[in-house]
């Protein structure tokens, strides 16, 4: 089944008194892993939140194929579009299994009966994220990496065709960051799920993403394969930083190396 296209058309977004994004046109490439990168306040999270219908547009629209998402019923939209926001919060005492089970909400009938298909989806999600042994553990008792995997398991149980994640590796050590990104790539390759993820680390974004979206001042300044868009000029424009870009010796993806003293912002402040 062909993945749907998620499209922003003439999109303006932000707050009633401050536009973060103005008249942006952008289309997520179906069936791929897309990473959105940019400096703080560049509009990354605002774009993701608006694509997920968590924040209403100030102008323009977000569409799934030709349908404006503002008019799609919530349960129907959740079968196609999943969102993992920054630092999600679970109720006190909620177990991993309970959390993951909540991902089945869009697929349950009017009477909300729990089915064998729901049970299989939850078991598969727990197994895929390595959380089966922790199913009965309270979310509050988990490490940061375990909690993040539990939330991703909930998204897997939801089985959306497009999954949006806002900085899922924040506050995780490097090993857990790699675990989470490896998991997202497996989800994309095994299930064909379109993955859109906001990341801070340019080198991890280049290593794991099929497409990179580089944002600055609420606009997309580059969009394409990492090898094509992650250049010294683009990094200077988006991050106000002098860098050297070389090939990663292991993956042959772009590897960004900051030039010592190359931060223009720091130089200006001095």
UniProtKB/TrEMBL annotation:
Every ABC transporter domain range: 6-242
Q: What is the protein name given in its UniProt record?
A: ABC transporter ATP-binding protein
Q: What is its main location?
A: membrane
Key words of the record: ATP-binding, Cell membrane, Ion transport, Iron, Iron transport, Membrane, Nucleotide-binding, Transport
Subcellular localization, per the record? Cell membrane
| Pfam families tied to this protein | ABC_tran
Q: How does it sit in the membrane?
A: Peripheral membrane protein
Q: Which InterPro entries match?
A: AAA+_ATPase, ABC_transporter-like_ATP-bd, ABC_transporter-like_CS, P-loop_NTPase, Siderophore_ABC-ATPase
Q: Its domain of life?
A: Bacteria
Example of a GO MF term: ATP binding
């Amino acid at each position: 089944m062909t993945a749907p296209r998620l499209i922003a058309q003439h999109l303006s977004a932000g707050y009633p008194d401050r536009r973060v994004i103005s008249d942006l046109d952008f289309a997520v490439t179906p069936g791929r892993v897309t990473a959105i990168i940019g400096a703080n306040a560049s509009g990354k999270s605002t774009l993701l939140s608006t694509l997920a219908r968590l924040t209403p547009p100030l102008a323009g629209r977000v569409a799934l194929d030709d349908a404006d998402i503002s008019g799609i019923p919530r349960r129907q939209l959740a079968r196609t579009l999943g969102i993992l926001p920054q630092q999600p919060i679970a109720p006190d005492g909620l177990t991993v299994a309970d959390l993951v089970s909540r991902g089945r909400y869009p697929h349950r009938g009017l009477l909300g009966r729990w089915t064998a298909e729901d049970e299989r989806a939850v078991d598969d999600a727990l197994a895929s994220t390595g959380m089966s042994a922790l199913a009965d553990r309270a979310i509050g008792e988990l490490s940061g990496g375990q909690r993040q995997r539990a939330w991703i398991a909930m998204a897997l149980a939801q089985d959306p065709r497009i999954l949006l994640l806002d900085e899922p590796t924040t506050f995780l050590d490097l090993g857990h960051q790699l675990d989470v990104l490896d998991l997202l790539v497996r989800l994309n390759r095994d299930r064909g799920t379109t993955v859109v993820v906001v990341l801070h680390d340019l080198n991890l974004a280049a290593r794991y993403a099929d497409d990179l979206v580089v944002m600055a001042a609420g606009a997309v300044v580059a969009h394409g394969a990492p090898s094509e868009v992650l250049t010294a000029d683009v990094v200077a424009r988006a991050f106000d930083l002098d860098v050297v870009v070389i090939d990663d010796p292991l993956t042959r993806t772009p590897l960004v190396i900051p030039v010592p003293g190359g931060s223009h912002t720091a130089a200006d402040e001095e």
